[in-house]
Specification:
The chain has about 170 residues and is mostly helical. The chain is built from 8 helices and 5 strands; from the N terminus they run αββαααααααβββ. The chain is about 60% helix and about 10% strand. Strands 2-1-3 form a 3-stranded antiparallel beta sheet. A two-stranded antiparallel sheet has the order 4-5.
Length: about 170
């Protein structure tokens, strides 16, 4: 009888400890981090809810208004992750960013202004990297080299970072 009571108390304490630890996860607001950069859940949500995203990536579930496919979320996160280490290494500069912003603004016109700031930032920096690779002032090997050394974290609800593929992949 005493053994059952002790077991019940032990289970209750273990359950309480488990539940309380779930509520104190550090970084729970971080969807991904790459080098010194963090993408918050709110920033990711703003990009995914943006109508502008449909002009850039095919991420919606056909026939289901507003739903995003998992591979679309992973593709967006992967694109975001790649930018940070390249930027931190100083491989994109002001003139490349200015030229990229002008090209992106011209391509998308007033629609670009409706995009949330994190998505605008992602597009401009991605375009700047592509411009530098295109003009030969940056090689793909240089860009991939800094990415290989980057400290990357992805919230497990979206997947995990695969260093070899340089992509966010599903868990499992």
């Amino acid at each position: 009888m005493i053994a059952r009571r002790l077991a019940a108390v032990a289970c209750a304490l273990a359950g309480a400890a488990t539940l309380s630890s779930c509520a104190t996860f550090e970084g729970d607001d971080v969807a991904a981090s790459s080098g010194d950069h963090e993408l918050s859940q709110d920033e990711l949500r703003s990009m995914l809810e943006s109508d502008f995203l449909d002009l850039v990536l095919d991420v919606r579930v056909p026939g289901r208004e507003g739903e995003v496919i998992g591979s679309g979320v992973r593709e967006l996160l992967g694109a975001w992750i790649v930018i940070g280490p390249i930027e931190d290494a100083g491989l994109i500069d002001g003139p490349a960013l200015d030229e990229a912003r002008a090209q992106v603004t011209e391509r998308f016109g007033p629609d670009f202004d409706t995009a949330p700031a994190p998505l605008q930032d992602l597009l401009v920096k991605n375009s700047a990297i592509n411009l530098r690779i295109g003009d030969g002032s940056l090689t793909q090997d240089e860009a991939l080299g800094v990415l290989a050394a980057a400290d990357v974290h992805v919230d497990p609800r979206y997947g995990r970072w695969d260093r070899e593929l340089r992509a966010v992949v599903p868990l499992g």
